[in-house]
């Protein structure tokens, strides 16, 4: 199975969680895009759902393929969010934000009763950090914020190169909110919760890509088929 076929297979498996009348969080990225396309086929066949997109890119795709959209402010919470991830660990912690959509993704996931993550086997890690951690920062004072991130990382036992993400056309990448992204190459995140707690205390940090306690199910597509991992109830 090709990498793209695995993403499609994971997205197709997530359709099993969708029920008529649901309000859905629609993730961002190449795997989540497959979910939006496959969901559109169900909508065309009569499924009644409404989605809240986590990025302008997902909103554009959803409109193109015919998934009805609403805003988070127009509904009283979401039933289910289906989204991709850049990494997941055995505790269902995630790194997200490779596409820069982490802020809206986290807001939407936080307002959802359930988050199903669609991935392929390349995203499974014993410990987070091989994928650089995206940290969204305000443009104002971005360099000072980067220094504060380095200090917070040091205090929590993490170190590595911190770089502003570049836009494809040059200059700094900006998110849908007009913020910058710092990519932190920690390689090994030994204490995700301590790092997350330290990052949110920095004034210029808008949000970070550590998703701790959000995912309840991870669907993993591999060359041998689909595996569904369910987080044990507390
Ligand atoms: O900002 C982007 C999101 O967090 C994506 O869900 C994540 O980067 C995974 O994307 P993909 O499915 O393209 O690997």
TrEMBL record:
It comes from the Bacteria. GO terms for biological process: pentose-phosphate shunt, non-oxidative branch. The active site is at residue 105. It catalyses: aldehydo-D-ribose 5-phosphate = D-ribulose 5-phosphate. It is an enzyme of class 5 (isomerase). The keyword Chaperone does not apply. InterPro entries: NagB/RpiA_transferase-like (IPR037171), Ribose-5P_isomerase (IPR050262), Ribose5P_isomerase_typA_subgr (IPR020672), Ribose5P_isomerase_type_A (IPR004788). Belongs to the ribose 5-phosphate isomerase family. Catalyzes the reversible conversion of ribose-5-phosphate to ribulose 5-phosphate. HAMAP family: Rib_5P_isom_A. Homodimer. NCBIfam families: PRK00702.1, rpiA. This is Ribose-5-phosphate isomerase A.
């Amino acid at each position: 199975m090709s990498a793209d076929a695995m993403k499609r297979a994971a997205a197709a498996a997530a359709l099993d969680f969708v029920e008529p009348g649901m309000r859905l969080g629609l993730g961002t990225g190449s795997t989540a895009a497959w979910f939006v396309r496959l969901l559109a086929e169900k909508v065309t066949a009569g499924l009644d759902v409404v989605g809240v997109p986590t990025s302008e890119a997902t909103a554009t795709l959803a409109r193109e393929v015919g998934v009805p959209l609403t805003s988070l402010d127009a509904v009283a919470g979401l039933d289910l969010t289906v989204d991709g991830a850049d990494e997941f660990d055995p505790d269902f912690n995630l790194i997200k934000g490779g596409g820069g959509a982490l802020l809206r993704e986290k807001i939407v996931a936080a307002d959802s009763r359930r988050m199903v993550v669609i991935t392929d086997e390349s995203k499974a890690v014993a410990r987070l950090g091989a994928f650089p951690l995206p940290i969204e920062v305000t443009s104002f004072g971005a360099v000072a914020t980067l220094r504060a991130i380095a200090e917070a990382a040091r205090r929590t036992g993490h170190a590595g190169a911190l770089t502003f993400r570049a836009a494809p056309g040059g200059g700094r990448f900006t998110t849908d909110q007009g913020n910058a992204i710092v990519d932190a190459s920690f390689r090994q995140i030994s204490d995700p919760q301590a790092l997350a707690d330290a990052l949110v205390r920095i004034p210029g940090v808008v949000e970070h890509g550590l998703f701790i306690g959000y995912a309840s199910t991870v669907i993993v597509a591999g060359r041998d088929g689909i595996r569904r991992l369910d987080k044990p109830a507390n």
